[in-house]
Amino acid sequence: MSAMEFADHQPNVVVKATSKLSSRGQIVIPIEIRKALGLTEGDDLTFIFICQ
Questions:
Q1: Which of 7, 22, 30, 44 is disulfide-compatible with 17, CB 3.0–4.6 A?
Q2: Is 36 in contact with 13 (CB distance < 8 Å)?
Q3: Residue 24 CB: number of other CB atoms within 10 A?
Q4: DSSP one-letter string for 21-50
Q5: How confident is the model over 1-52, as pLDDT tens digits?
Q6: pTM of this prediction?
Q7: What CATH number did the domain enclosing 49 receive?
Q8: Is 11 helix (H, G, I), strand (E, B) or coil?
């Protein structure tokens, strides 16, 4: 599923959480975000940064 398809199928809900970047460049995805996205161990994630 593409990012656009995913966005089109989600209700208008905002979930905000904070995480820190470790010295090794790792982050922990907060449980609220994992639950909202249905993420489980071993899932692949893609990060997209759009510079304007």
A1: 30
A2: yes
A3: 5
A4: --TTS--PPPHHHHHHHT--TT--------
A5: 565 566 666 667 777 889 999 999 999 999 988 988 899 999 999 989 999 8
A6: 0.61
A7: 2.10.260
A8: coil
